[in-house]
Amino acid sequence: MLPEWMVEKQGSSVTRQTKTIRRPYHYLTKSIGQMNKAIFDDLSTERYASLKGLWQQLDPRIKLISTVVLIALAALAKSLWVLLGLLGCSIGLMKASRLPVWTLQKRIWGFVPLLTLLAALPGTLNIFVDGDPLLYLYQSPYPDKIFGLIDLPTSIYITRQGSRAALFLVMRVGISVSMGTLLTLTTPIAKLLKSLRVLRIPPLFVMMIEMSYRYLILLLHTSIEMFEARSLRTVGELSLRQKRALVGSSIGALFAKSMVLSDEVYMAMSARGYTGEAVSIGQVQLKRLDLNWIGFLLIIVLITIMGELKLV
User: Fold this and answer.
1) What is the DSSP letter of 198?
2) Fewest C-beta atoms under 10 Å: which of 92, 118, 218, 269?
3) What are 42-99's pLDDT values in tens digits?
């Protein structure tokens, strides 16, 4: 038998109130999220390279040479239709390689070509490049001066020649970035670095790229650990002065750790037999698919040359 005081239900006069406390989304959390996103993108690259797509099955040396050839065609093209054809070719190759075409194209055209366009916009004005007017931006019957020093023409307009040059520049940059993205997403980093020897790249330069790649990933992990530790020790919001002091101290500590990590990474790679030569598992040999792709690439080059001769 239990005692009566253990059986009886006694009401409590204390009412428990729950309140959700949201931690402020300060810059430490944002920095950690951005670094985690960079690591996730690196893992996504390895996942894309393991898919059974068209370019994943090609020899890395063939892919590297094909990328250089297609970028050279885009750089030498003088016809807009040829550039559009090369852009369509890059999109088709992404689709055949089972890559997220729409997501990649948004990232590609929303950053590098956009910055290129902003840099090329002044060259479209008649102030810098004379040409036929396309769109008038300013007109005045009398010449004006800026601050009484710089003479302005009676009209400022966008020229056809400048617009064409800016459009071609943006298209060439976009196609080049698309082909570079296609190459890096469909080729493991070890095989890509090994294929650089085809272009007679010095082994020392290849070693520097490989060391930088491996070291940056390790440095990202170290940075995340530092910022997570700081975030757990931070209560409330920091003032702007405290944020600047925290960033400065973090940079100093990260620099000191990076000096030690660089030596540790090199010694660890040397202990595992690293000699400066990019090594991949298995010997890469040309297959029938590679020969078929070489023939297709020659057809693309021939069509591009014929298009240039007819359209220019």
Assistant:
1) G
2) 118
3) 667 778 888 888 998 998 889 999 999 999 999 998 888 999 999 999 999 999 999 9
Enclosing H/E stretch for 280 = none
The pTM assigned to this predicted structure is: 0.72
- Over the stretch 204-221, which tens digit does the pLDDT of each residue have? 788 788 777 777 777 787
CA–CA distance, 61 with 195 (Å, rounded to integer): 5
Q: Are 188 and 46 contacting, i.e. CB atoms less than 8 angstroms apart?
A: yes
| 91-103 as b/e: b if 16+ CB within 10 A | bebbeebebebee
Longest dimension (CA), the chain: 109
CB within 8 A of 124, min separation 6: which ones? 158, 159, 162, 163, 165, 166
CA distance 122 to 56: 41
Phi, psi of 97 (to 5 degrees): -90, 5
List Cβ neighbours of 121 (8 Å cut-off, separation of 6 or more). Answer: 166
Burial 81-90 (b: 16+ CB within 10 A, else e): ebbebbbebb
Distance CA 310, CA 37 (A): 47
Q: Residue 136 — φ and ψ, nearest 5°? A: -80, 130
Query: Is 297:66 a contact under the CB 8 Å cutoff?
Result: yes
DSSP one-letter code for 54: T
Residues 6+ apart with CB under 8 A from 185: 45, 48, 49, 97, 99, 104
Pull the structure tokens for residue 216.
């940056």
B/e letters for 219-235, b = 16+ CB within 10 Å, e = fewer, are beebbbebbeebeeebe
| Strand, coil or helix: 114 | helix
